[in-house]
TrEMBL record:
GO molecular function: carbon-nitrogen ligase activity, with glutamine as amido-N-donor
SUPFAM superfamilies xref list: GatB/YqeY motif
Alphabetized Pfam families for the sequence: YqeY
Database matches in InterPro entries: Asn/Gln_tRNA_amidoTrase-B-like, GatB_Yqey_C_2, YqeY/Aim41, YqeY/Aim41_N
UniProt-recorded name of the protein: GatB/YqeY domain-containing protein
Organism annotation: Romboutsia weinsteinii
Amino acid sequence: MSLKVKLQEDLKSSMKNKDTVKKSVVTLIRASVKQFEVDNRVELDDEAIIDIIAKQMKQRKDALVEFEKAGREDLVNETEAEIEVLKEYLPQQLSEEELNEIVKSTISEVGATSMKDMGKIMSVIRPLTKGRADGKLINELIKKNLQ
């Protein structure tokens, strides 16, 4: 089943079950996908939809930090619930250990020796971890392994 079909089915079921959080998150995902398709006159495949969902996940995580700083517990709880719904549509996330192994092997593969090689490393790691790891974490692991 394609991701578009799954989103459509989940929207229907969340409406039937009166699950407002899931309904709003799925509606936002579908709207973002539709907007991208209309703007670029393309039909998105599952991989491109996963990219959109990953961007929304990053936005929610960034907002979560700000809500916690502001002491807005109501928004923190709502955003955490939205993050859980978004996780359902992303591939299984890599653990920090798995990610560290990928970073180490990529550094040796590229022959990186300093932070100047960050671009080379990231260009190799991005396709391997697309939608399965946070860019900030990858960045931190690269810095740690290059020291």
